[in-house]
Amino acid sequence: MTDPQATATREIIGDLMRQDARIAPKYFYDACGSALFEDITHLPEYYPTRTERAIMATHGAAIGRKVSAGGTVIELGAGNCEKARTLCKLIRPARFVAVDISADFLHEAAAGLRAAFPGLDFHVVVADLTAELAMPSDLPWQHRLVFYPGSSIGNFDPPAALDLLSRIRRLVAEDGGLLIGIDLQKEVAVLEAAYNDAAGVTAAFNLNVLNHVNRLTGSDFALHQWHHRAFFNTTESRIEMHLEATTDTRVTWLGGERLFHCGERIHTENSYKYRIEDFIELLDSAGFHNAEAWTDEKRWFAVILARP
Fold first, then answer.
1. How confident is the model at residue 5 (pLDDT cuts 50, 70, 90)?
2. Please, what are the domains in the chain?
């Protein structure tokens, strides 16, 4: 059987040794990182969470009428399961599957949702969305709705996003569907402020990935030698997050090391910003059709329902 920590260690070290060093964003989400991201969603600069919530409040009834009640909701990147509460109130599913990479945080959040919906058949799946998604063996195949809120699909570059959407398609039958949130293109100042908040919470979130990497690989990153950087890449239509060395620093781990020069960066995250029509084309390529989109008044964010 594959050792998950050994696999993670190999992946992380391989990425750190690339010429353009990187750390996969899934490693943000240890217990501390998950809690910090929860704090980010409440920041005044971070519009996606409240804007998506407003869309659901305004259009939730219309969305609910288009989704079968009594089926199964599978939430990807479930986090604190808070967004699922609104959806569950709307469509009253019989079963709920919470999928996330952070096990401790997920089980704690799941307990709260169980208490809110005591009749719900509840499952927890700890999984990496970059790998094949396996559902509980006793989960009915019919009437599955995959719920992927929060615009996390933007963390995947377009080929990887297509791959994930194609794997999601394999989770649902012809009577199933996908309800997904996407962040839309908008003014650069608004985008960059959302990832450079005045309180420094996003910076702490970005830097915390080094603590997680240290625990997983035995490396000795010193957080005070790194600085959070986030900016909009106009050519790629994405926010990029990086950690930038503030001095020459040698990082070691069992069996290896790397010297990072002052100003050298580790790429930690992308967050692609879409046009609705482009994302619907991506959905179509993945096997989801008949897409319908709801947006806020500013057209900053969209919630899309698509079916096979």
1. confident
2. 47-186+275-307 (3.40.50.150)
